[in-house]
Design a protein that fits this description.
- By secondary structure, this protein is an alpha+beta fold.
- It contains 13 helices and 19 strands.
- Strands 1, 2, 3, 4, 5, 6, 10, 13, 16, 17 and 18 form an 11-stranded mixed sheet that branches.
- A hairpin with a 4-residue loop joins strand 2 and strand 3.
C-alpha cells in the first residue's frame, strides 16, 4: 500500500519544483539575451571619407565640419582667403599606424585626423582576450574620430579641403616607457608646417604640436582647433538589455560655473553650444572610457558643440589667434586623451577631468569608498576580497548604531504577545488600539521605529558602492573566485543573489512581527523582491550585500540574545 503524502509536503515539493523551474528558465533567458554580443568582424583599416586609400582627395563638402573664423572669438573676413592645401596625388596610402603597449592609433595624413583607436590592455570581453576594445573608429557602421588643425586668416584647414601631409613611414612602434614623435610635414605656399604627435609608451595621453615656419613676406595668422566628431550610437558591445541606471553617453566639459557640465545629444538637437573657458577640456564619455581634448591652461579658449546636417555631433574648442612674423617660427600645442576613465591619471592631466568618472549625487561618499577599496586591493590583490574587507570595515563603523537598533528589535519581540492581545481586544476600534499600543511602548521603553535603522543605514553606502562598481574601470572584467570572473557583470548562475535572498530571509525570521498584518505581508515579500532585483546587478555589489547580510544576521542574533537574557527574570 502506497503511503499518502500529506498536503503540506505536497505544497513544499510543488514550491521547490516551481522554484527550480524558474531558476532554469532564468538561466536560459540569461544565456539567450543577457550575455555580451560577440564582437563583429572589423575592417582592416578605417574608412577615409568614402574614398579609397589610393584614390584622389575627397570633393569639397559645402557643409564642412571644420569650424570657421567665428569660433575663434575674433572673426576676420580674410579667413575666406585661406591658402590652398598641398596635393599628393601619388600617395599610395593615407593611413599611419602607431602601436604602443596601451594604444593602436590610425592617423589620416589628410588633415592629420585620428580615425581609429584600439586599447589592447582592455579586451572586448573575456571570451576574446586577443580582440582589443575599439574606442574611436570610422567605418564598421560607426563614426567616432578626433580632428585638429589650424583655422583663421591663414589657417591650413580653413577651407573645405585639408592639407595632405608627408611622413617618413606608415608604421611606428613605441615601447613601454619610450617617447616617439610622429612627424607629418607639408608646404603650403610660403609656409612649412609640421604636425607632430608625441606618443608615450604605456600612456593614453598624446601631445599634439603644430610648428609653422613662415618663409613669406606677410605675417601668418592662425588659431588651433581640436574637436571630436561622433554619431549617437551606443558603443559596440553595450547595446544589450540591463536593469538599473544606464551609463552616460554624451559630451562633457568644465566651465567657470560648473566643474563638470554635461552636454547631452538632446541638448545639441535643440541648438548649438558656445562657451569661453580659461584652459579647460572637452570630452565624449561612455561606459568606462572617454576621449578628450585638453587645452592649454594659460589660454582663453572658445568651446562649442553642434549637430551636423548628417545627424552626427561635434564638440571641440578653438584657441586664441596667434601670429608668426615673416621669417619667424610659431608653435601651437594641445593634448588628446583616448583611454579608460582612470581617475588618478585624469586628475594629473587637468583640473576636474577626473569628474568624468561620474559617481552621481553621492560622489562625496563614493570617492572615499573607492579610495579605501583601492587601498585594500593593493594589500590583497583581489577586488572581490577587497569588497569583503570593505564590508567588514563598514560594518564595524556602524556597529554601535546597529546594536542599538537590534536591541530595539529584541524589545519589540518581547512585547509581541502583549501587542497581539491588544489587537484581539480592540480589533474593532483602531483609535483605541493605537492609544493602547503607544501606552505599551511607553511603559516597556520600546521604540517601534528603532528596528528600521539597520535597513536604512547601509543604503547610502550601497548606492554609492553601486556607482563605484558601475563606473570604476579598475573593476571591469576583474575576477574574484570560482565562477565569478567579472565583478562588474552579473552572476552568470545567480548563486550570489540566491544566497543573499536566503540570508535576508533568515534575518527576517529574527526580526519581530510587524503589528499591521499588511506590513507583515510586505516584509515577508522583501527577500523575494530583493533577490529578483539583484539577479541583474553587478556581482561585486551582490557580494557586498551578501556579506553585509551575513554579518547583520550574526550581529542581530548576538545582540538580541544578549538583550533577551538581560530582560529575562532571575530564577531563585
Amino acid at each position: 500500500m502506497i503511503p499518502m503524502i500529506s498536503p503540506e509536503v505536497q505544497r513544499i515539493a510543488l514550491l521547490v519544483a516551481l522554484g527550480l523551474t524558474g531558476y532554469l528558465m532564468i538561466l536560459a533567458w540569461n544565456e539567450d539575451y543577457m550575455q555580451p554580443q560577440p564582437a563583429a568582424e572589423r575592417a582592416t583599416a578605417p574608412e577615409l571619407d568614402g574614398a579609397t586609400l589610393s584614390g584622389p582627395a575627397p570633393a569639397a563638402d559645402p557643409a564642412s565640419d571644420i569650424p570657421d573664423a567665428s569660433f575663434i572669438g575674433a572673426p576676420d573676413p580674410a579667413a575666406e582667403q585661406a591658402a590652398a592645401p598641398v596635393r599628393d596625388a601619388g600617395a599610395a596610402d593615407r593611413l599611419i599606424r602607431v602601436t604602443t603597449p596601451s594604444q593602436e592609433v590610425w592617423i589620416d595624413r589628410r588633415g592629420g585626423d585620428i580615425r581609429r583607436v584600439h586599447l589592447p590592455r582592455y579586451p572586448v570581453n573575456l571570451d576574446r582576450p586577443d580582440l582589443p576594445f575599439e574606442l574611436l573608429d570610422v567605418g564598421n557602421g560607426r563614426l567616432y574620430m578626433a580632428q585638429s588643425g589650424l583655422i583663421g586668416p591663414d589657417g591650413l584647414d580653413s577651407g573645405s579641403e585639408r592639407p595632405l601631409y608627408r611622413t617618413a613611414r606608415a608604421n611606428y612602434e613605441v615601447g613601454d616607457g619610450e617617447t616617439l614623435a610622429v612627424e607629418l610635414e607639408a608646404e603650403v605656399g610660403d609656409v612649412k608646417v609640421q604636425k607632430i604627435f608625441e606618443f608615450h609608451g604605456g600612456d593614453y595621453l598624446v601631445d599634439m604640436i603644430y610648428r609653422v615656419e613662415n618663409r613669406g613676406p606677410e605675417p601668418f595668422r592662425a588659431s588651433l582647433f581640436g574637436q571630436i566628431k561622433r554619431d549617437a550610437k551606443e558603443p559596440p558591445g553595450q547595446e544589450s538589455f540591463s536593469l538599473g541606471p544606464q551609463p552616460y553617453l554624451g559630451a562633457a566639459l568644465t566651465t567657470p560655473d560648473s566643474r563638470y557640465e554635461k552636454i547631452e545629444f538632446e541638448d545639441l538637437d535643440e541648438g548649438d553650444f558656445r562657451g569661453q573657458v580659461q584652459g579647460g577640456w572637452i570630452a565624449f564619455l561612455q561606459h568606462y572610457f572617454l576621449s578628450a581634448w585638453v587645452a592649454n591652461e594659460g589660454e582663453s579658449n572658445s568651446y562649442y558643440g553642434r549637430k551636423r546636417a548628417d545627424g552626427t555631433y561635434i564638440v571641440g574648442y578653438t584657441g586664441p589667434l596667434a601670429t608668426v612674423t615673416p621669417g619667424g617660427q610659431g608653435e601651437w600645442r594641445s593634448r588628446f586623451y583616448a583611454g579608460p576613465k582612470d581617475q588618478k591619471r585624469l586628475e594629473q592631466i587637468a583640473d576636474n577631468l577626473n569628474l568624468t568618472v561620474d559617481y552621481g549625487f553621492l560622489w562625496w561618499l563614493a570617492v572615499p569608498l573607492f579610495a579605501l577599496l583601492d587601498w585594500l586591493h593593493s594589500l590583497v590583490g583581489n577586488w572581490g576580497v577587497a569588497i569583503i574587507l570593505l564590508t567588514v570595515l563598514v560594518k564595524l563603523v556602524l556597529y554601535p548604531l546597529s546594536s542599538a537598533s537590534y536591541k530595539s528589535m529584541a524589545n519589540m519581540r518581547r512585547v509581541a504577545p502583549q501587542m497581539k492581545r491588544l489587537q484581539e481586544r480592540y480589533a474593532d476600534d483602531r483609535q483605541k488600539l493605537s492609544q493602547e499600543m503607544m501606552g505599551l511602548y511607553k511603559k516597556e521603553g520600546v521604540n517601534p521605529l528603532g528596528g528600521c535603522l539597520p535597513m536604512l543605514l547601509p543604503m547610502p553606502i550601497f548606492i554609492a558602492l553601486y556607482w563605484v562598481l558601475f563606473e570604476s574601470v579598475e573593476l571591469r572584467q576583474a575576477p574574484f573566485a570560482l565562477w565569478i570572473d567579472d565583478l562588474a557583470a552579473m552572476d552568470p548562475f545567480f548563486i550570489l543573489p540566491l544566497l543573499m535572498g536566503a540570508t535576508m530571509y533568515v534575518q527576517q525570521l529574527l526580526s519581530p512581527t510587524m503589528g499591521d498584518p499588511m506590513q507583515a505581508r510586505i516584509m515577508k515579500m522583501m527577500p523575494i523582491m530583493f533577490t529578483v532585483l539583484f539577479l541583474f546587478f553587478p556581482a561585486g555589489l551582490v557580494l557586498y550585500w551578501l556579506v553585509n547580510s551575513v554579518l547583520s544576521v550574526a550581529q542581530q542574533w548576538y545582540v538580541m540574545r544578549k538583550a533577551e537574557m538581560a530582560a529575562a527574570p532571575v530564577k531563585n
